[in-house]
Fold this protein.
Amino acid sequence: MTEQSHLVLCVDDELIGLKVRKILLERAGYRVLTAPDGSAGLDIFSREPVEAVVLDYSMPGMNGGEVATKMRLTKPHIPILLLSAYMGLSSEVLSTVDLYMTKGEGPPVLLQKLSSLLQPSSDA
Amino acid sequence: MNLSQFNRILRQVFLLPVIALLLMAVALYLQIRGANSTVNLIQESNARIAQVSRIEKLILNEESGLRGYENTSDNRFLQPYLAASSSLQAEFDRMQTLPGLDSVEKHYLDDLIEKHQLWQDAFALPVIATIRAGGQVRDVDLNLRGKIMMDDIRQDIADTTHNAEQRRSARIELWRRQVRQMEWFLLALALCVGISIGLFTLNRLHAVSSAYKTSLDVLGRRAEEIFQSEQELRTTLASIGDGVITCDAAGRVQMMNPVAVQLTGWTQAEAQGQPLEAIFHIVNEKTRDIVENPVAKVKRLNRIVGLANHTVLIRKDKTELNIADSGAPIRDRTDGIAGVVMVFRDITLERKTQDALLANEKLAVAGRLAATIAHEIHNPLDSVSNLLYLMRNGASKEESEQFMDMAEQELARVTQISRAMLGLYRESKAPVQVDLKEMLQEILLLMEHRFSDERVTIHTDLPSSVSVDAFPAELRQVFTNLIANAAEAAGPGGEVRVSITPRGPDAYSNGIKQEPGATVLIADNGAGIPDDVRPRLFQPFFTTKGERGTGLGLWVSRGIITKHGGSIELDSDTGHSTHGTVVSVFLATKPTINAGGD
């Protein structure tokens, strides 16, 4: 864990889940910003120097796919990890994000995927 | 040409010769009458001539008797004279009364009588008197006078005879002329009548024959048309995709088309004249009870009848087919029943397809629910697994307690959801009492997240203790479908209202007692359903959702509600400010469940 100063934005409408995820990522050394829905997330994303986004798919109003599309328009180089409680999202949605995981796969998978997104040079 | 025209021609053709014959008969009658009068006239002439000749003979006898007496003076010679003289007056009288005497003859006769009288008075009587007195009559002058008188008399007689003969000849000549004229007349008449009868008859017969020919043509065409139509009907019957059996009024088979032969397994020859139930052996699929003979049913109800659901045809080889059929009366001229026609088809495949579709829709609903459930469970599971990870990787005691509280909250959510799931696909063989409020709340709970995702607000008005007898899994399928439809129609920011209106045991409508039960209303304030789409909503495979819908939801829902003895109705408004759709489902408290309704 050498790059602990990365700033990560978490967007989810499940507030307990969001709170737990923030604690988990902070313990892993990330700085974490949270937003309870898509529009608040976009707001923070445009203001703050966010380095990665952990985005829930199923949210009221704008879903994760729509939020990701809008983020790509402003800062296309910022990696996005999409989380979903559903299996089998459409390939159209998946093509707008860098990585995808199903909720419940466990914290090691989340941390591993997030870390891989923030070390692009070593993975390439 | 119709029959009355034909009869008129027959009368005309018959009347013409009758008229001609009547004319001839009149002519011949006149001719015979002419002949009769001619014969009469000739007979009268002959009678007069004979009478004149008799008078002449008597006068001759007088003269010769007188001459003998003159010569001999013997009385015996005078005898002929006396005999003739006494007869003569009577003969003259007779002559005068003979018929047909004309004025000339009358004149001759009067002259004759007068001259004879003169001869007697001036010659005969003086001679006789002289001789009787003993004298002699040798006077030449006297005798010469007597002779001259007698010559006059003879001349009169000859004239009279001649006149009668003349008249007779004239009459005969006239008669001959008349006969000749009549011959010509009859000949001409016969010719005229013959020619006119010929021409008229020819003309009439020509008309009759052309009318007959037209009739034959028409009959020929009709026969051809009837033949064609019969062929068409035969072909239609033979090529029709359904089985067709016709029976007489007594229910004996008369005709079967090839499909009926194939479906029943009996040939037309075997079936002919057999009672229908022997060939068309049908039973109820479930109860195996014999279904009422369709012929008897048609005769009893005197109208077209359909067959009950779940009818099975037992074929000749004892294999079975699901069939759908109908029977219709064949009417006779008096609107009575001359027979019955049965139309039926094999719906075994149709039934299988329908069953497969229903299973498919059940799977689709289950799939959609599974996805919802997975979502609902994955969220708390994700939190719990994160919390466990944090606790395992060096959390303080305080932190751990906080994490455990949070984990408990999340697990409580999972328990709630799993409880709602429990009843979901619990199949039951018999209907059970279902609390509608409980069921709707469970469904709404499962869909809660989805509603919040779609920003749909739910309003409920669910009074407690409203129960109906039903198959819960099926009813849940219906309500899940209807509520999901409503949420989708309402769209982001929209509203869905779910309410229950119970109907008590003493409800009346238009004076008719209503079955107790409850109406579940599911209303949305979406755009509404256009009029042209509405009638098709309950048809299978009709969907307004494109690839996201199976098009079976409402169709299956209606099937389930019908099976439950309830009703489902849809009312929609596309007005600017009043738009929205309301689906109402009525369920009876104690319904008669149609066991084989789906």
